[in-house]
Amino acid sequence: ELVKFINASIGTEAWDTRVVRTEQVNANLIAADVQISLKKLGAAGSGTAVLMIARTPAGLKLAGIELFEVR
Questions:
Q1: What is the spatial distance between Cα 39 and Cα 11, in angstroms, rounded to a whole number?
Q2: How far apart, in Å, are the Cα atoms of 15 and each of 5, 23, 26, 37, 38?
Q3: Residues facing residue 53 across a β-bridge
Q4: Which of 48, 46, 47, 51 is nearest to 66 (CA)?
Q5: Three-state SS annotation for 33-47
Q6: What contacts 29, CB < 8 A, 6 or more positions away?
C-alpha cells in the first residue's frame, strides 16, 4: 500500500483528506478511515484509505497505511 500512496503523491497539485471515522486500536494507535480527493497532472482522483496513526511524545505520526484505493 505504501507504493500506491507514494505514486499517488508524486506530482500532486492538490490533496484533500477528510476523516470519515476513527477507531482506537490501543493506547497509542488509532485507525482512521479517510476519503481522499486529489488533483494530479490536471486529472482529478478520489478514493478511500485506512491510515494508522501513532501517538508519540512529539505528537501524532503516520505509522502505516493499511488500505489505499485512490484512483
A1: 9
A2: 12, 23, 29, 6, 4
A3: 30, 62
A4: 51
A5: EEEEEEEECCEEEEE
A6: 52, 53, 54, 55, 63
C-alpha 50, offset from chain centre:
6
Structure-block grid coordinates of residue 47: 478514493
Helices (H), the chain: 2-9
- Contact assessment for residue 5 and residue 68, using Cβ atoms and an 8 Å cutoff: yes
Question: What pTM does this model have?
Answer: 0.85
Tell me: the pLDDT tens digits for 4-56?
A: 888 888 889 999 999 999 999 999 999 999 999 999 888 999 999 999 999 99
- CA angle at 51 for the pair 40 and 45, rounded to the nearest 5°: 20
Q: Which cell numbers in the block locate residue 31? A: 485507525
Comparing CA positions, the residue from 2, 65, 1 lying closest to residue 34 is 65
